[in-house]
Amino acid sequence: MTLASQIKHAAKDALKVLYPDAAIELSTISVNQTKPEFNGDYTVVLFPFLKLLRQKPDAIGKQLGDYLVEKTGLFSGYEIVRGFLNLTVTDAHWVSFLMNHFTDAHYGERSKTDRRVMVEYSSPNTNKPLHFGHMRNIFLGAAMSEILRATGNQVVKANLINDRGIHICKSMIAWMRYADGATPESTGIKGDHLVGDYYVKFNDVYKEEIAQLVAGGMDEKVAEKESAIMKDAQELLRKWEDGDKEVRDLWQMMNGWVYEGFDESYKRLGISFDKVYHESDTYLLGKKIVEGGLRKGVLFKKEDGSVWVDLREDGLDEKLLLRGDGTSVYMTQDLGTAKLKYDEFKLNQSVYVIADEQNYHIQVLKLIMKKLGEPCADGIYHLSYGMVELPTGKMKSREGTVVDADDMVSEMINLSREQTEQSGKTEGFAQDELAKLYETIGMGALKFYLLRVDPKKRMIFDPKESIDLHGYTATFIQYAHARICSILRKENVAISPDCTKFQSFVQVTELLPLEKKIMLALEEYPLILSDAADEFNPSSICNYSFQLAQMFNTFYDAHSISKAESEEKKQLRLMIIVMTASVLRHAMHLMGIRLPEKM
RNA sequence: GGCCCGGUAGCUCAGCUGGAUAGAGCACCAGCCUUCUAAGCUGGGGGUCAUUGGUUCGAAUCCAAUCCGGGUCACCA
């Protein structure tokens, strides 16, 4: 239990004793951290009690304050300021808090349970390389997986690869026509980029053909359907569905190139999956579910043979589930995959990390599953995130404004190298250590930039700002961590020291405000982590980590650790910074960000 | 038009289960390196929390309406 909620309960018990006739609910008691301009650590707001107790705030505050100080032993004193009871926690409590937790590498985690959660993220199409928008998805999914794991869940990280459909056929057609047999090996181009190049080529040719047809007097809508290259692509899709060997072979070869490229990108991003689904394997499964729904009478068939679900009583529309010719649509395959996931892992929750433009789609998916009585329905959760936009407008691959993921990664790493060289902090590093450091800094900055914003909000990606390694960035946190490690090195203290070494030194009574401030923040970490899990929002952890790093920097500037006023103080401060570094490492690890010991 | 999401400093964002004088970062101005890493620290200017009304001891936070921006409502995925 957090200190704040301990205080809440203590206050409730106290009021019950002090005012036996008044029934004070726990929910009417509000406990916050005391604002820095006042004395105290935690504040109980007295206003809600005025009516119930028919007393003035000062009177209630005095009774409550006296009682709490006397009976709990948790507080050394209190002040009442205009209806707020500011309680000061004893220094002894903080010291024992430190002793109990400062070497715990798992501090803040919840104990493990049997709750099974799948987090599906990335889920790329195989016709083009990953771009910047995908990175928000990927980092969110990876971070949430770690956060859910740290809060007690059994997590399965899943990737559903959209490897079939007209989009990949477009790349295939263009490759057949224009590539002259080019392969990643023959060209030296990364596989996903090579295939992406032909997707772009397709669109160029397509646009040109439409323009010509329109110039010849054809209506644009008709021209879009009459374009020769588009017809070829559709023909190719039909052949693929029929299982045409040549087409399937080409498809397999080109997808193989893309997978190699993706694997390289994932590796560089520090991303992995426990389970990979391919849409080509799962897209037929939904049909069975639809047939079952028909038999149950939950779904209905129209004259042309198409199958629908009626969602009008839920305030939505009718929704198509199978085409008249029996082929499946997007929703059909998602029904199948949802059930497959559930059956395979007996999931309590299935998280979909998908952009908010699909809010409606997931809502419908969940609703249909519910109507069909599928047990997976309740566990479906859409982690919806806003689009990433450029300052100039939206990122759309066809408009040429796309920022490629691989390029972005390289750019960040280059920048961290320039920055480090410029600051002259390369001394004492071996070449390979430096390379690793640049990657740690560059990737950290990238991940942090994308995770520090509330997922549900749209965000603007300003290339200039994103490469800033000052201020509210991972670099800032990494730097604070490196400074701590530097002190620990000089004091011969291990990063995760043996706590018994410190036992004898804990007799400190007078805590400085800045010492206490950091401990207050450390005490809060489990709650921050817990909230991030409950709200599916890693940004609060970014925020917290930055603030904690900032507190350390302020402390570092104001008070010396190695030359503290006394040996006891020095030991206390060492414990504080050991725990600070440990919490920062834990928090950043959840985001997939490493903290160097030297930079 | 229906439904969903957003609007807080010049810019990018916190704060939103109601609590004290609304906070960071960037940018701008002024200071701080013979002392543990200046990728840092301290101070300053900068706000009608979109607007209006309501709820109450108290509203950026809750409710309603309005305005602005985005998304979505396909036999596309």
In CATH's first tier, which class of the largest domain applies? Alpha Beta
In DSSP terms (H or I, runs of 4 or more residues), the helix count works out at 23
Instruction: List how many beta strands DSSP finds.
Output: 15
Please tell me the CATH architecture of the largest domain by its name.
Answer: 3-Layer(aba) Sandwich
Distance between the amino and carboxyl termini? 37 Å
Q: What average pLDDT do the residues reach?
A: 91
CATH homologous superfamily heading of the largest domain: HUPs
Low-pLDDT sequence parts = none
Look up the CATH topology of the largest domain.
Answer: Rossmann fold
State the share of residues found in helices, binned by percent: 55-70%
Number of separate domains: 3
Radius of gyration: 30 Å
Major sheet size, sense and barrel closure: 5 strands, parallel
Structural class: alpha/beta
In what order do the strands lie side by side in the largest sheet? 7-6-5-11-12
Q: Per the principal axes of the C-alpha atoms, what is the gross shape? A: globular
